[in-house]
Amino acid sequence: MIRNYIRIALRNLWKNKFMSVVNILGLSVGLSAALVIWMIVHYDLSFDTFHKDRDRMYRVVSKLDFNKMIIKTSGVPIPMLPELRANVPGVEKAALIYQYSPNVKIKEQKFGVQKRIAFAEPEYFSLIDYKWIYGSPAVLKNPLQTVLTEERAAQYFPGTALQDVIGREVTYDDSIRVAVSGIVQSLKGNTDFTFQEFVSMQTVLSDQGLKKMRGWDAWNNFNSGISMFVKLRPGVEKEKIEARIMGITKAHDDEDSKNQYTLQPLREIHFNSEIGAFDQRQANLPVLYKLGALVVFLLLLGCINFVNLQTAQAGERAKEIGIRKSLGSSKGRVILQFLGESFVLTAFAAALSVLMVPGILSAFNSFIPDGVTMAMFAEWQIFLFIPILVLLVGLMAGIYPSFVLARFQPVAVLKNQVHGIKGKARLRQVLTISQFSIALVLIMATVIVGEQTKYAYRKDLGFDKEARFFLKAPGSRATTEALKAKLDAFPEVEMLSYGYSAPLSLGTSSTTMSLGTGEMAEKAMVEAKYIDANYVPFYKIKLLAGRNILPSDTAREMLINESYARAAGFAKPEDAIGQLLSFNDKKKPVVGVVADFHTKGMQTEIMPLALTSDWLAKTSLHVSLHRDADVHRTMDKIKAAWNEVFPNDEFKATYVDDALEIFYQSEKRLNQLLSWATGVAIFISCLGLLGLAIYATRQRTKEIGIRKVLGASVGSIVMLFSKDVTKLICIAAFIATGIAWYAMDSWLQNFAYHINIPWWVFPLAAAAALLLGLVTVASQAFKAAMVNPVRSLKSE
């Protein structure tokens, strides 16, 4: 019986080839999107699920409150670790890992700055279960020892057998010489724990200079490179441990401290980008939810096409149903027959969607995680997901038409009293309005996201970013001065300046300061930038009052921005000049106030900022070129000068414009995704409209012939078919305008500086959709109107 259902379903699909193609294309686009998004969700949800006792493992995180400035970080005071082990019995195990990015050298071969290195102790390996090939965690009890993964061993010692790597020497930052004492396998499975090299924690503890530099004994050190993990005993509630941690730290915090410490479940690390995960890519749960909603919308559009076309063709299928019922077929069997057609059509769409997946992965490679590839089709989960998706979509698309068609009465059918589904035209209108409402919301959202992105790029940032780049100096201050002297001699170079970072930078250096009589009079967390005397004129930052700082390698004078001056209680910038600012427990005079400039993207409000000279400024050399300079030739000269001073280090110039790009990657990806989704939604909607238009013109062929015989023009016939579409799209535009305005107004609230939603977006989107809809319908109406009426009426 099932084989018979499938054979009849295939026969009907072949008989109505065009309508079948319309349905298959509409569903396949939605199914391909569902497949790709499922792959992304499955990939992200698989992170760190393989750890033993992972439900009892947590990371200790800090929420720092500095006078309304909230900072969330994985950094916690290192002295907290021994306190946890000694005084909190609910903690079964606790371990610390400290990220480290040194310059690596082996004998005379330099590898440059290496990532994925960490200071670790043996206890770390009792929490995170690595497979040891050589050695054991006990090797990290001694100073000047390191453990490598197989991959890192192959990188440092290519062609050397792993057993021969043991005992080899590795040098960090030209001063720390360690011996390789163990080899481990990298963790199998998707994980944020991607460390490739583990240096014994005792290396830091044995060197007083390293201890001081790393803030080992400081209760106010919240370096984000620190991560502290705990494993709780079975049955212990994390809230009780959090309370014990707060009790431990209270004795060491300031009396008025509002800092909080909480336990972050291991499973949440991959999804909390606010805190970070060892500088690895993290997922965003709200984004995953939005992607899921987008899939539902696209699948819904395809299902709407199916329902529309199936109900529109009811009259053509009526005799088939009547004959089936008169020969004894039950209502249930008729339902199964039409559901079978739906499932067969959905299966074809699923097969086509699988072929479309590689193209989608390639087109959206900047948006899709690197781990999401066609190799995932080898996993058993996808073979379960695809048939489940086919069943759900087939049922969703076919259930309503099946029940409606199965209700036909055989007597009425065989007397030719059924020409369609009475009263169901209104349903098709509602479904068509729904389709175009979804498409219009996506069009409007795409335009508004694009306008906000343009605004962010065009807004005056308060400094000049054109033709400016900076070089991170890997050597000492003396070698950096040597590079500066060489570049200063180039006629193409307009100006040079030292500065720890560009005016707009992803990282933030903050410290406690106090100034004036306003809300900043007490200790408050303030962003600090370390610069030289050329920095302000180099970036053309406007000086509102006072003067620039004088040349110095130490912090002797301070510049503040106008936001800081205002928060400190000064009515005019001039009033702040000469005031003493408490900085690093020392009083420094404020010699100038600069105009506010953006140090972060448009998402963040401009905060109080202080600028001062410091030796840290000389870690980066900022370069601007003359407007008429040959950029390519000049960059070659600068690279040659770099190679003379730093022969073993890679030349990398970072343009200030590129720093701006970092802040809007999410918006650009969202715009790309919305543009794609809009195109798909319009395509599916117009495809369905085309199918309905073709069916409607077939049904009204004789009416068109009679109208032409009675003198109707081609234009009037086209208008006859177009007016209904115009009405439906106008209703859809009205509905979409309200939804889009509300959704995009909420989205814009994520930006401290944003556009007002342009009024013209809504009529423009409606006009575009109306034009596409009219072209789709009018093309079929024009074609029908041009047919000779004799041919239309010959059967009469």
Descriptive overview:
This protein is α+β, with helices and mostly antiparallel strands and 796 residues long. The chain folds into four domains: 1-47 and 298-422, no CATH class; 54-271, no CATH class; 424-459 and 661-796, no CATH class; 468-660, no CATH class. Helices cover 48% and strands 17% of the residues. Strands 1, 2, 3, 4, 5, 6, 7, 8, 9, 10, 11, 12 and 13 form a 13-stranded mixed sheet that branches. It has a six-stranded mixed beta barrel with strand order 16-17-22-19-21-20. It has a four-stranded antiparallel sheet with strand order 15-23-14-24. The two termini are 41 Å apart.
Salient structural properties:
4 domains; 796 residues; six-stranded mixed beta barrel; 25 helices; single chain; alpha+beta; 13-stranded mixed beta sheet
- Average pLDDT across residues? 82
What value does the Rg take, in angstroms? 34 Å
Range of strand content: 15-25%
Biggest beta-sheet profile: 13 strands, mixed
Unreliable residue runs = 413-423
What is the total number of structural domains? 4
C-alpha geometry: globular
The number of E-state strands comes to: 24
Secondary-structure class: alpha+beta
Pfam families: FtsX, MacB_PCD
Domain ABC3 transporter permease C-terminal: 294-410, 679-788
Transmembrane segments: 21-41, 287-309, 334-360, 380-406, 427-449, 673-697, 725-744, 759-782
Membrane topology: Multi-pass membrane protein
